[in-house]
Amino acid sequence: xxxxxxxxxxxxxxxxxxxxGEQLGYQTPGFKVxxxxxxxxxxxxxxxxxxxxxxxxxxxxxxxAPGDTEGRDVWLKFHAxxxxxxxxxxxxxxxxxxxxxxxxxxxxxxxxxSKGNVxxxxxxxxxDPTEYVPDYGAAGKSNPLSPDYRGHWxxxxxxxxxxxxxxxxxxGSMTKFRGEGNSGGIWQKVELIVCEKVRIVKTKIxxxxxxxxxxxxxSVDLVIDNNGKTRVDTEIDLVISPANFKADERYENKKxxxxxxxxxxxxxxxxxxxxxxxxxxxxGKPNLYNANIELKDIESSVVRxxxxxxxxxxxxxxxALNGNRIFIRGMRYLSSLWISEMNEERYRKxxxxxxxxxxxxxxxxxxxxxxxxxxxxxxxxFVVWQVFPLHYCYSDSDDLIERCVPMMKEMVEMLYNxxxxxxxxxxxxxxxxxxxxxxxxxxxxxxxxxxAAKTVDPIRWMHSGDYEEGVMNxxxxxxxxxxxxxxxxxxxxxIVEFGCGTFVGKESMLKVLPESELWxxxxxxxxxxxxxxxxxxxxxxxxxxxxxxEFIDNAQEYQARCIKEQIEYCRQIxxxxxxxxxxxxxxxPWPNIGASGLVDYFRVPFxxxxxFKQVYTPVLACFEWDKDPYIIGKQKLYKPGATLAGNFWxxxxxxxxxxxxxxxxxxxxxxxxxxxxxxxxxTCIERDGAKVVNELNWQIPDDFANGEYxxxxxxxxxxxxxxxxxxxxxxxxx
Length: 734
Prior knowledge:
By secondary structure, the chain is α+β, with helices and mostly antiparallel strands. Helix 10 packs parallel to helix 11. The protein is globular. The relative contact order is 0.09.
């Protein structure tokens, strides 16, 4: 049977700034490596002493041949190398690979020595040859930044690395240095796989729910390679059984096979009469099955999958899960710029916090996480929208398209069996290109990539790129000015980014910059670490204040208000048109000072964390402020004697109606539990609905003291269980 040997550990390495390593014989077994250093593999080399190195690094390790290889194949598998890899074994060149996230392998059975095999990898991770062009625009207005730290855009990116190459919230973003923070390295494990000449190369599990009777057809497509010279007669056995739920279910399909030399395509079909469907955690249970596949006396494997239908309505722009429309309370996620530092434990902590915040969907754009992430989403019930690693200012050349299209297919094949995958995108923002002669990525590259991806996955929705097909962002206070009137925006059904910028706390700042550069601000250093001066002061209109602590407090308060109010408004217009929304985004992917998420790189929450939690609940009570214009993030100021007017809303994302719920509102001084005014009423709401359930016209007493107050709203079901708590803050000023 198949055996796997992990080659992780300390490898020797040497940089090659002048690209002379091959000429000097670095790839030969006898080369003297006395002055080479060691590096623990796998790792993104930014996390090592190399730090932000661009160029070529040679890696070298030795291993003995595994036992019991006679008459068998031995595959050398790299799970991911960023970005180019040339590979030699015992001085013999094996081949080359491009791409930072896709696995590749070589059959080395006839190249192995019993002892002292020398494996050499020439790992190239260069700086993209693009030119970073100044584009100051409004960024030059009232701007203390040096020219190199003002607005810059890439001319034509060519390395397919998405957010790991060029995007917001990375080292030097929007400056001349925006390509820094290199993620190069052998960043996933390297393995030897000892197996028979016959092996299963690919397993793809397609399933379809039959509308007439609710049964599910499970189709297991296998690619089996016979690397021998003769036909192999064998037997294959498929057994489908519950993976994470208890049931007396077992579905089997056994058949005889004649495997000819070369590639063999095998299809196994099994109908499940009453399938247990995979749902998001809030729509049911994320039920999973195991497909146990055994090639008799050759190989066995277990593939976990779920049965579901996740569909996108092209007319409404809304999503449905297993026939039920689902409102997406989503989050955009990038765990780290250097994903080798992630593992199952760290992913689980992030996802458990997201469950605490009632998130039901995660958008990965534009990069690929470790497989452990997708497996946890399968298990925990998050639907994932996966975006290919293309972002912003890419070339639309024939050469780039030729390289991207195969990678797109590989990404879809690699993640296809994960139950959590609900939709794909091929480009994060194909039209964000602020320089003249913008390439036609949307019309050229995106269309060819969709065509290629559909050959692998004809079922899931394929989305071309943001700002198309009913998709937009409404990040008021970051991409849109702070005084934008949200009710006058032309909002689309799918909001892939909403939110607002802020700054991390002082303790986290001091892990990034010395205090002497934090106050008074060293503006160039602040900008390198994602201050976004133009956005912060010219767009969001934040005041610098008299101290660092005051500024951080103002920024975090402002972000909390903006995020909360964007959510409340978008949920009030649920399905007219908004059907999904994704916060930009969960955490900072590197140790910086300017932020857009709810927690920083060190997972320290901002003030927005708790307010976000209040308004992302499946059942939400909220107050619609009766003001025109309605400005997101503004403090609500009233004089004594004025009338505070507006509507009470109740939003229900659940699949059951809420009957006879108690809706209680009270006016309290901020931070107090003493009611100044209080009232309640009973109401009901249909499943998956949103409506105004009452209105408020409350006159503020003439003797009201100056201060901060709140309308506190509580909704409880007929058994007294709390369904929602929310508040609307306002200030009384004489």
